[in-house]
Design a protein that fits this description.
By secondary structure, the protein is mainly α. Among the domains are: 2-78, no CATH class; 149-196. The chain contains six helices and no strands. One of its GO terms (cellular component) is cytosol.
Length: 197
C-alpha cells in the first residue's frame, strides 16, 4: 500500500512537471490524463456509500496534504538551489569583473614588451650585421695569418725533419694560394714555400 502510494505521488509529480503522463483510464481515472472531477464525484456518489465516501474524502485530503507538503519541500529545495546558483553567478561576475583591470594591465604590459623588443631588435640589427661582417673579417685574417706564416712553419717542420707535417701545411694552404696567386703577397709566399720544399 505504501509502495502504491509512493507510485501515485510520483505519477502526480510527473504529471505536474509534464515528465510523463499516465495514459490509462478515462474521465473517472483520478491519475489519468483526461480526468474530470465532476464525472469522478458523480461515479463515487452513484456506487459508494457514505462511509466509503468519507474514507475516500479522508484519503484524498491526506494525499492532498502530502502532495502539498512535498510540493513545498520541492519549492524550498529548488529555491535554495536557485539562491545558491544566483550567489555563484554573482561571485563569478565579480571575479570576471575584477579580472578586467588585471587583464587590461597584462595586455598593456605585453604591448610594452613587444614594442621594447621590436625597438631592441631594430637597434641591434645594424650591430648584428656589423658583428657578422667583423666575424667574417676575423676568420679571413686568421686564414691569411696561417698563409703568411706558411714559410716559417715549413722551415720549422723541415728543420725538425717532419716532412709529413710540412706536406700537410702546404696541401691545406695550396687552394687559397692558387686562388689569390695574382696578389703579389700571395705570389711571394708561394715562391718562398716552394723554395723551402
Amino acid at each position: 500500500a505504501a509502495e502504491q502510494h509512493r507510485l501515485r505521488v510520483r505519477q502526480r509529480f510527473s504529471g505536474f512537471y509534464d515528465l510523463s503522463v499516465h495514459q490509462s483510464g478515462g474521465a473517472t481515472d483520478i491519475d489519468g490524463a483526461h480526468f474530470e472531477a465532476e464525472a469522478y464525484v458523480g461515479q463515487m456518489l452513484k456506487h459508494k456509500g457514505l462511509p466509503e465516501l468519507v474514507a475516500k474524502s479522508n484519503e484524498l485530503s491526506g494525499e492532498i496534504k502530502e502532495l502539498d507538503s512535498d510540493m513545498q519541500m520541492l519549492v524550498y529545495e529548488n529555491y535554495n538551489k536557485f539562491i545558491a546558483a544566483t550567489d555563484t553567478i554573482q561571485l563569478m561576475k565579480e571575479k570576471v569583473e575584477s579580472l578586467g583591470p588585471d587583464l587590461a594591465r597584462l595586455a598593456a604590459s605585453v604591448h610594452d614588451i613587444t614594442t621594447t623588443s621590436s625597438n631592441i631588435n631594430s637597434n641591434l640589427a645594424d650591430r648584428r650585421v656589423r658583428i657578422q661582417k667583423l666575424n667574417g673579417v676575423r676568420r679571413l685574417l686568421k686564414k691569411l695569418s696561417i698563409i703568411f706564416e706558411l714559410p716559417t712553419r715549413l722551415n720549422r717542420a723541415v728543420e725538425l725533419d717532419a716532412c709529413a707535417e710540412a706536406v700537410k701545411y702546404w696541401t691545406s694552404s695550396l687552394p687559397v694560394i692558387r686562388a689569390y696567386s695574382h696578389v703579389p703577397a700571395f705570389k711571394a709566399v708561394s715562391g718562398e714555400s716552394e723554395a723551402i720544399l
